[in-house]
Amino acid sequence: MRAFLAIVGDTARLARSQTVFYVLAALLVLMSLGFVIVVKPVENEKGEKYLSFIFGEPKDRHLETTWYGGYAESTQINIDQEDLNDSEKRMARIEKMMEEASGLSRYERSVQGWHYTAQIVLFTVTMWLFLAACAGYFPGLMKEGAVDVVLAKPVPRWLVFLGRFVGGLILLAIVLLVAQTILFVGLALKTGIWHTGAYASFPLLIFVAALLYAIIALLGIAFNSSNLALFGGYFLYLGVDTVMSILIGLRKEGTFDEFETFGKIIDGMQASVPNFGMLKSLACVSVLSVPAFPWQPFMVASAWLVGALGLAFFLFRRRDF
Amino acid sequence: MTALAVETLGLRKVYKGKTEALKPIDLRVPEGSCFGLLGPNGAGKSTLVKALLTIVHATEGKARLLGQDHRNPAARRSVGYLPEGHAFPKYLDGRGVCLYFGRLSGLSGSELKREVAEKLDMVGMGERSKVKISKCSKGMKQRIGLAQALLGNPRLIFLDEPTDGVDPMGRADIRNIIKTIAEGGSTVFLNSHLLAEVEQICNYAAILNHGELVTEGTLQEIRNSVSAGNGVAVRFRCGPIPDWVRDSLLKEGADFEDATSFVVRLADDKATTPMIDRLREEKVGIYAVEPLRATLEDAFIDLVSRDDDEEEGGGES
């Protein structure tokens, strides 16, 4: 355990020595503060409270619409899990969700909507910069002369591997938790609504970061190159995911109805390649009081996480340094 | 029976199924010895150490460190290692490096802090322990590397080219530290291509060439192996030597360094007395008789050359 903590601590120190990590931490904290600062509670002529921006003319239902945006997305995710051709089931699902959301006041919806908007930005910035930060963690460990001393210690290789992996995530988790706490406490103090559901996105954020890190670790170990790991990570996260999202969207629109085989290929891709776009939506809508948690993208991503980690460890264990 | 710090049986390493970096090696290093592994560059010295420490995976064979299977992490519990060309984390200082590797060695709390301070002092880095690795000279890094290898007073210490890149004063310091460690009872396994270094520090050695163990034994045994069967060389420093005596000695193969000093190869040590008697009969004054022992360098060059010749011969046949 002591050795494991030492490796975790060393990885965290490595992260702290990187400029990109400070940029990530600073951006997350500043953006969280920004999301708190730029809004204020306002009352209309009818005495109803709502959330508005601090600048410009207060707009009564402006921020409340963000809640409806998230709600619509959540509804879409939920009904996608049902049989699309069965309209009764779809309606039943939508009505159930509306019922769950009906207890919220307009003011609460606008606060939750603002939390949802903040999560979209935090998620995007986190993944973009974390990819750049973690690309060098494993290739750096494997550098000749650096890994030798570590492996000569009475520590099994799996512990070195796991320590490096967990260490890479721990500091990110701390920074994210700080940012989310600033957002949670700041908005709570400002609006009087202590929306604990704002933390619901945290485990999913860490899960997606872990998945990306596992894939990057695999690439870094396989090719012993930070650059290749970085480009591979961005290619998968942005390139493949964007193409997949477009194809899935077109499939839903019925574009490929005449090409059954192509449609099946897209279905197969959806069932076998992690859909980061969907995972991002899941993380962001999770802060709304309308639960949406389809298992399929989560299971695919979990299988990739386990597979990438397992293969990365297999390569790390059998490598000569 | 002497306990063994390192024992290998047919330890072999083939990289990617092609390059045979180590031919099956049988090696025994007694516990408490200061062992020098010699060999030209690329002989497989570092590969052997890395295979022992499982930094590279041996293709075949067995090895034991301090009586335990070398593949078991527990076998490395009392082992220190300073690799050649180490690259410690640049974001750490000397103390940080030692604290980190000390924790990996299983040290903690006040014991760890005391050990780190003691070992940094021992290598002369006590007052410079807060200098970042990125700002350290090669010599400073080497001392820090040595300090981390000594944490926890390991019973077996592998040092791969420990004086590499260190100035002459630093080398002397490091040699003294190694001697102190060896005197303390730990086994030192020194990888070096510097023969003089091994000759000054070690009492036991082996020579590796093309991944093959050419010889092993005490330094004296290795030195003697070069002159085995060739007699002993003896230098005589004399007074004036008459011409007829000089001619007679030249016929016997004597090598005159100047008019009064010559080296002659005798059958063995016992043949020295008759030679002295003969010179005195001829009224030649004798000021000094000096047996010339083969140096480790002579032995090394001789053994490696012979091995190369055999390899070439084998290759041709």
Q: Which two chains have the most extensive interface, and how many residues on each?
A: A-B, 28 and 35 residues
Distance between the termini of chain B: 42 Å
Write down the oligomeric state: heterodimer
Radius of gyration of chain B: 24 Å
> Order of strands side by side in the largest beta sheet of chain A?
1-2
Total strands of chain A: 2
Mean pLDDT of chain A: 88
Order of helices and strands of chain B: EEEHEEEHHHEHEHEEHEHEEHEH
Based on DSSP secondary structure assignment, what is the total number of beta strands of chain B? 14
Detail the poorly predicted runs of chain B: none
Q: Tell me the helix content of chain B.
A: 25-40%
Poorly predicted sequence stretches spanning 5 or more consecutive residues of chain A:
none
Mean pLDDT over the full residue set of chain B: 90
Overall, the morphology of chain B is elongated
**Topology order of chain A in helix (H) and strand (E) letters:** HHEEHHHHHHHHHHH
Count of folded domains of chain A: 1
Task: State the main characteristics.
heterodimer; A: 321 residues; mainly alpha; two-stranded antiparallel ribbon; 13 helices; 74% helix; 3% strand; B: 317 residues; alpha/beta; six-stranded mixed beta sheet; four-stranded antiparallel beta sheet; 14 strands; elongated
Can you give a write-up of this model?
- The complex is a heterodimer of chains A (321) and B (317).
- With 321 residues, chain A is mainly alpha-helical.
- Helices cover 74% and strands 3% of the residues of chain A.
- Chain A has one domain.
- Chain A contains 13 helices and two strands, in the order ααββααααααααααα.
- Chain A has a two-stranded antiparallel sheet with strand order 1-2.
- The longest helix of chain A has 35 residues, at 157-191.
- Chain A is globular.
- The model of chain A has no long low-confidence stretch (mean pLDDT 88).
- The mean pLDDT of chain B is 90.
- In chain B, α2 crosses α3 (109-122), α2 (94-104) runs parallel beside α4 and α7 crosses α10.
- In chain B, 37% of the residues lie in helices and 28% in strands.
- Chain B contains ten helices and 14 strands.
- Chain B is elongated.
- Chain B is of the alpha/beta class and 317 residues long.
- The A-B interface holds A 2-3, 5-7, 9-10, 13-14, 16-17, 143-156, 318, 320-321 and B 15, 50, 53-57, 73-77, 79, 81, 83-92, 96, 100-101, 103-106, 108, 145, 148, 158.
